[in-house]
């Protein structure tokens, strides 16, 4: 296993300042009204317009190509340049490579073009906590903090855990084909759907758990 450097950066206010291709008008912001009946012509992108994510992505893509990166044909969020791998998720960047000097140079060039925040070695990414023992060459990932946030949000922090979401009887008891009589209950469907979405995301790293959650959410 290669002992690669893994660092993370964040683009500050990623959706601001992009070049608009269309004419977009907006109401005068509160506290800046100049005259009744007038609207503002946007010259740069802001948070809100549906074009903002595409404009931000286009600007970053063009700059990465300019400094020598090639976009992967298998995953357009991955860029490669001379042993450096750069993964993009909205405004979050992961840099992976053998040479720390090369990674530092990429950081410098990105900082010259965008307002960047250097987060150092990868520790947390999209709710995933990363722990690394470089001596043993072991990298582990978990979602403990994210899971605890979910439990607290739904007041389930004191619930008793089970070893597996598909433990015998858990899914079958909720199966719609069951002949058992179950008393009707009043539930917030939107809340249940939201919880199912969170559970699916929190188990996406473990296929066996994801299968159980998927089965549970379909019942």
If you had to describe this structure to a student in words, what would you say it looks like?
Strand 6 (84-89) and strand 7 (92-97) form a beta hairpin. The chain has a 6-stranded antiparallel beta sheet with strand order 4-5-6-7-1-8, with helices on one face. The chain has a 3-stranded antiparallel beta sheet with strand order 9-10-11. Helix 4 (189-202) runs antiparallel to helix 5 (207-217). The model is unreliable at 167-174 and 208-213 (pLDDT under 50). It has 219 residues and is an alpha+beta fold. It is flat and about 65 Å long. It is built from 5 helices and 11 strands. The chain folds into 2 domains: 5-29 and 37-139, Alpha-Beta Plaits, CATH 3.30.70; 144-177 and 184-217, no CATH class.
Order of helices and strands: EEEHEEEEHEEEEHHH
Q: Mind telling me which CATH architecture of the largest domain this is?
A: 2-Layer Sandwich
Q: In whole angstroms, how far apart are the ends?
A: 42 Å
Low-pLDDT stretches: 167-174, 208-213
Task: Summarize the biggest pleated sheet.
Answer: 6 strands, antiparallel
Our estimate of the beta-strand percent is 15-25%
Tell me the overall shape: flat
The mean pLDDT is 76
CATH domain class of the largest domain: Alpha Beta
Structural class: alpha+beta
Helix content: 25-40%
